[in-house]
């Protein structure tokens, strides 16, 4: 985490604090919670305090902003991989407003705010109907009912770019109406980690087809720990049937890779693609 992120769809990551509370099926095997516990940080759940960061940590984006001056393509900053900017807790109010000020002070960076709580954005942000041009707002939709619950909230926010993270994808999504009217970018992928659940390949191909029909940027991040069996992914530790009947082999994230239908999909929203 930090400069030169290993996450394929961002340049850097920045965490204004660590910690969160689980709110959806996508949170069940949260990588951020596992990472925090591995480092001895007890910051997950409604009763535990969040870990705040040093002043030196907060200076990092200012350095990235200076380095990006004059660049044709703005670096993207994923905020926050270890928290949720729009978690509604009194202790986070000063840190969230410090973050908003930092975003305004770094116009050479595009800030990607990904939340599982878009219903809180209107209340907790300070930008009203005039959002900065360097803010992209996204929400996680792993199942159809989450899309129907959360996307109307995202639709209300006038961010320059609005996106979804369908990762880990846990079911078939039919979101074409929102792709036509609201969503500029779709990120999707399978689950990784020791308790990862296999995804159906058809879920990804159907979502890709919806994006192609609506000319929505599509990014396939990973298969996760499970990949469809095609003779190239062996030896595998386990085999399971995906919901669509495909044989999925547990081969690990690295071997499973991130090609879908034989190619990489690294789409970016049209509003931010290079000319």
Overview of the structural elements:
The longest helix is centred in the last third of the chain and has 14 residues. Helix content is 27%, strand content 18%. It has one domain. The chain is globular, with a radius of gyration of 18 Å. The model has no long low-confidence stretch (mean pLDDT 93). The chain is built from 8 helices and 12 strands. By secondary structure, it is α/β, with parallel strands linked by helices.
Summed up, what is this model?
The chain is an alpha/beta fold and 275 residues long.
Layout of secondary structure:
Elements: E1 12-13, E2 17-18, H1 31-38, E3 51-52, H2 55-67, E4 76-79, H3 93-104, E5 110-115, H4 121-124, E6 135-140, H5 144-156, E7 161-166, H6 176-181, E8 185-189, H7 201-214, E9 217-222, E10 226-228, E11 238-241, E12 247-250, H8 253-256
């Amino acid at each position: 985490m930090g400069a030169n992120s290993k996450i394929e769809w961002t340049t850097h990551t920045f965490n204004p604090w660590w910690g969160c509370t689980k709110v959806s099926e996508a949170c069940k095997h949260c990588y951020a919670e596992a990472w925090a516990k591995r480092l001895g940080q007890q910051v997950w759940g409604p009763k535990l305090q969040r870990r705040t960061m040093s002043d030196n940590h907060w200076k990092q984006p200012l350095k990235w902003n200076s380095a990006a001056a004059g660049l044709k393509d703005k670096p993207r900053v994923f905020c926050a991989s270890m928290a949720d900017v729009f978690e509604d807790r009194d202790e986070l109010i000063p840190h969230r407003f410090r973050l908003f000020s930092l975003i305004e002070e770094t116009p050479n960076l595009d800030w990607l705010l990904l939340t599982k709580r878009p219903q809180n954005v209107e209340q907790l942000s300070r930008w009203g109907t005039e959002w900065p041009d360097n803010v992209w707002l996204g929400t996680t939709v792993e199942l159809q009912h989450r899309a129907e619950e959360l996307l109307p909230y995202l639709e209300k926010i006038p961010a320059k770019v609005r996106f979804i993270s369908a990762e880990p994808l846990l079911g078939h999504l039919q979101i074409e109406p929102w792709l036509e009217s609201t969503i500029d970018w779709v990120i999707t992928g399978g689950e990784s980690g020791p308790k990862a659940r296999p995804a159906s390949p058809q879920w990804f191909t159907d979502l890709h087809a919806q994006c192609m029909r609506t000319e929505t940027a599509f990014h396939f991040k990973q298969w996760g720990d499970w990949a469809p069996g095609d003779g190239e992914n062996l030896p595998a530790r386990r085999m399971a049937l995906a919901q669509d009947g495909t044989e999925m082999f547990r081969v690990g994230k690295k071997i499973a890779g991130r090609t879908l239908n034989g190619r990489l999909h690294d789409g970016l929203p049209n509003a931010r693609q290079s000319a």
